[in-house]
């Protein structure tokens, strides 16, 4: 498998806390990788380092053969890394399809306000994405009125409109009812496979990790403490003790 994202020796501290303490991790094209670990172990810090919201004091992040460590978040997004959920990215007063159309326009650097909403080609492209996420019936719903599960799918649709190669997801099933979480993940997985998107997701729900992740990476104290197939990693006594038991 071809490496898509590579982190080497990432370090960053806040006061005395080492939120990244020599992080090394490679994500391969087509993988669906889960990150687990106790609160405060540095999972979100890692996503922030990959998207340019934080700069490491040392270490490098590569997207294929390009160093992205010192790039601005907007440039990194243009190079192909998108993020969903942690940053509220829906315009809550606009309809779902308008949100997707604005993201399509942003991706193409068309900034004139309202222009994208008048372009028929964008309607078609946005509808294709909405159908992929099963949201076609909600295209004209005001985004701010969507229930949580659908809001998450709309958020992912907006992220996908940026045509990412790698999508970072912060807890895709948090706030979603027990009944809805598997159908939500099924829809997300199907959409990502259809668009050849590689994904990295932070998750606290071990059932979701076991069912959907190709690989799981366990974080502890700013470091990767274990990684591998979920069925193997979840049996590792160190993981059970320090991570799964603590979740
Ligand atoms: N901007 C910041 N300023 C100060 N401290 C920070 C900042 N971001 C993270 N930290 C600290 O760095 C450590 C790692 O935090 P991080 O949010 O990355 O952990 P996490 O594994 O994502 O936790 P959680 O599961 O609770 O989201 C914590 O001790 C946190 O308090």
Automatic annotation (TrEMBL):
It comes from the Bacteria. Transmembrane segments: none annotated. Residues 5-246 form the ABC transporter domain. InterPro entries: AAA+_ATPase, ABC_AA/LPS_Transport, ABC_transporter-like_ATP-bd, P-loop_NTPase. The keyword Glycoprotein does not apply. It holds the Pfam family ABC_tran. The keyword Transmembrane does not apply. PROSITE patterns: ABC_TRANSPORTER_2. Coiled coil: none annotated. One of its GO terms (molecular function) is ATP hydrolysis activity. GO terms for cellular component: plasma membrane. Keywords: ATP-binding, Nucleotide-binding, Transport. This is Amino acid/amide ABC transporter ATP-binding protein 1, HAAT family.
């Amino acid at each position: 498998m071809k490496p898509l994202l590579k982190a080497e020796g990432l370090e960053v501290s806040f006061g005395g806390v080492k939120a990244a303490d020599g992080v090394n991790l490679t994500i391969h094209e087509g993988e669906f990788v889960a990150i687990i670990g106790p609160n405060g172990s540095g999972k979100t810090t890692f996503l922030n380092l990959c998207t340019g919201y934080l700069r490491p004091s040392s270490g490098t992040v590569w997207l294929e053969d390009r160093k992205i460590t010192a790039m601005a978040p907007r440039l990194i997004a243009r190079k192909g890394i998108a993020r969903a959920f942690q940053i509220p990215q829906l315009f809550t007063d606009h309809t779902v399809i308008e949100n997707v159309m604005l993201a399509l326009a942003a991706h193409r650097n068309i900034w004139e306000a309202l222009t994208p909403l008048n372009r028929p080609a964008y309607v078609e492209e946005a509808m294709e994405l909405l159908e992929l996420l099963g949201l076609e019936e909600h295209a004209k719903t005001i985004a701010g009125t969507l229930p949580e599960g659908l809001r998450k799918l709309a958020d992912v649709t907006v992220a996908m409109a940026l045509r990412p190669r790698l999508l970072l997801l912060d807890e895709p099933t948090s706030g979603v009812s027990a009944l809805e979480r598997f159908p939500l993940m099924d829809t997300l997985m199907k959409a990502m496979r259809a668009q050849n998107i590689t994904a990295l997701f932070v998750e606290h729900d071990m059932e979701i990790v076991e069912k959907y992740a190709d690989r799981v990476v366990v974080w502890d104290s700013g470091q990767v403490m274990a990684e591998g197939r979920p069925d193997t990693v979840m049996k590792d006594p160190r993981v059970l003790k320090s991570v799964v038991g603590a979740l």
